Each structure stands twice: as C-alpha cells, then as structure tokens.
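The freezer alarm interrupted the setup, so I double-checked each line after restarting. Inputs confirmed:
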Amino acid sequence: MEHDTTDFGFSEVPVADKARRVRQVFDSVAPRYDLMNDLMSLGLHRVWKRFAVELAAVQRGEQVLDLAGGTGDLARLLAPRVGPSGRVLLADINGAMLARGRDRLLDAGIAANVDYLQVDAEHLPFADQSLNCVVIGFGLRNVTDKQAALTQMHRVLKPGGRALVLEFSQPVLAPLKPLYDAYSFRILPRIGRLVAGDADSYRYLAESIRRHPDQDTLLGMLHTAGFGRCQYFNLTGGIVAVHRGYRL
Amino acid sequence: MTDARPNAATGLPLAALEIALNRLLALDPLTLERLAALDGRVIQLDVPALRLQFTFAPSGSGLQWLSPAPDTVDVRISGSVADLLRALAGGGLEGLQIEGDKHLASAFASALREARIDWPELLAPWLGDVATQRAAQALAAVTGALREGAESLLRSGAEFLQYEQPVLVSAAEWDSFRAEVRDLHEAVGALERRIALLALRRQ
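Predicted 3D structure, all chains:
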C-alpha cells in the first residue's frame, strides 16, 4: 500500500505537500545559505565536500551531475577537474538556490563547462547510462522519495559510473550524541533566527537530519537501487557520512 | 563480482590512501585506460607474514579500496612485500602465489608497472610552470647523481670485499664452485649406483 504521508522534519505531511514545504524552506534560507553553512558547521562543510569530491575521483572529460547542488559548492570543486572537455551539470529543484549557485560560479570565473538545470531528483531528465558520476551533497534528506532518487541516479550512470551521497548521518561516538542534540535543537535555531531571521527553517534542517536514514540503512537503499561495491565513510564521528556506489 | 558487506564503514586512512593513489594515477591517462579495461574485477594483495590484506577494484577513475573485503575476489596475489614490490617494479610474478585469474594478475601488475606519473603536472599549480620545470630538472640531476653514486659505491664496495678483504667471491668464482659441486654431486651419484651394482653382483 502506498504511504500517503511522509516526514517533514518531525512532522508528518501529505506526500504531495513535502516538495512545496521544502521549497519554502530553501527559498527562505537561500540568501544566507552559505554564511549559515559556515556558521553551523564551523567551516567543516568545506572539508566534507572536498573529501566527497576527492572520493569521486572525477577525470578530465567526464560528465558529472551535481544533484541538489544548491549554491554550487561541489560544482565549483568539480568543474576544474572535468576540464574544458568535460561538463558539470548543476541541478536543483529550487530556482532560488540554483540562481544563487549560478551567480557564485560566475563570480568565481567558472562558466565554460557548467550547465544549470532545475530538476526533480525523482525524475531526472537524462538518458539512461549518459553520465560518469552523480554527486548529491546535503540534498537527499530533502527528497520526498529517496529510494526513487537513488534509482534515478543509478539509471543515468554509465557502467563503471559512481554515485556519491554526502549527507548528515548518525553520530557513532556515544559522547558526541548529547552534545550534537543540544547544538542542533537549541543553538542551531537561535543562530538561524539571529543571522537569517528564520528559526523555523533551521529547526526543520535539524529535524530532517534526525529523520534521515542512518549509515547502514542508506547503504541498503543504495544496494536496492542497483548499485554495487557500496561503501560509506564516516566523517566527524558520523555526524556526516559519504556513501559511494558503482553502477556495475 | 561481489559487493562489500553492507554493515561496516570504511576507515578514513584507507580512504586517504585511495585518494592519494588516484590523484597520482590521474596524472597518467594511459594507466587509467589500462585500469578501465579491468573494471568490474576485484583483486586482493595478501602479505601473510605481516597479516596484511588489501582488496581493490580497478576502474577508469583509478583504484577503489574495498574495505571490508568482499567474500570472493577474482584473483588473490600472495607473497612477501619484497616479491610484491619486485613484481610492480618489473620483475614479473615469479615468487608470488596467484589464486584465480592469472591473466588479470598479470594485466594489473603491468598496468601499474608501466605507469608514468607526470610529476611536473602535479607540482605546476603550486609552484608555477617555470619553477616546476626547474625543480624537475634539478630533481632529475640530483636523482641521476645519486643513482650514479650508488652504482659506483656498490661497484667499489664489491671490489673491496672481493679483492682487498676477500670476504665475498666473484660471480665467476661462485659459478665455477657451483659447477664443481654439481660435478661432484653427479660423480657421487654415479659411484653410488656402481657400488649398488657391485653389491647386486656379489649376491
């Protein structure tokens, strides 16, 4: 039987309503998104993203999809690696985030090998087996049907292509958990209110992290989507994890 | 083809090693092409003496470290560290135990052996083209001088140990001694057979 509700943070909302609510959150946070990322992660998100890009081992001439790419942090690291003969497709469902990403990349002088697409991760508008690599950084937890998105990622990859999922996960160090909870639910919304004037959106971000599948569950979902040689790497005690799977 | 077991995380030190290795391999597109031809296969290097086991899958983007290792692999190459290094340096696979696809083991070893890493390409973004070129030239000169010095030292040392302090024998003397031992061994064998024959006749 189909589920007619899904999670939105700690709330249950109609499936058809989640995308709209997520869009509202990101419309709200887009102008201060980068500043907030730095404040919230104490700058660590740059290290996490660089690690994911290094693991992707992208080569010159490859076609890479930066899914839910938002403000383009990953695309910015990927574009020099694929070189002028390759292509980075920066895709996001949210127009405001995508526009912000495009502006940032243009300001950084990156234009020749990046395309911008407003797409839904559950319905990727690419031919089967057309891309070398798909990365999704801090985006999967906002997708309504995560399994469908992973299946789409698998579909568009060429044989030998790889998918990388960088996402908040579950801390594996016990002493870290209470500190992390206190930070997420008490400090994070306050920072959101002070800097972005929007405590609710940042409360949603913290809640959505808790509702996101843990490392092993997500690994199982990658297998279900058809990926092989699946692995994950815990970063910062499991607060963040990078999952990697190959289309064999 | 198998998957990593879906219940354990891969350690960051191995990930760092994989990243470093793949950055080097990315400097030689020809090696990546050779590794791409082995895509989908799983190779295990085993050093029993040190209880070390490395399992990886080659692909067009380099090597993927598989940890935890899958239950089955396409080829397992076992031996000492020296034998493994010798194989990668061009010494062939002799002395190594190979279980599984020997052709895969040979193709993998030759892909890595023939890798030509473009070091200046790695350094250029940090040092600039001119400084990188000069550094590469200086490094080549130093490496050449060191190699020449090492060869000379080795030659002089061998001569000293052979002629000044007769601790070592020369290759020619050693070959001659081995030939004499072989002849003696064969003569003893013939004598044994002759004695056995005489003993048989006496009965």
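Quick read of the result. The CA atoms of residues 127 and 200 of chain A lie 38 Å apart.
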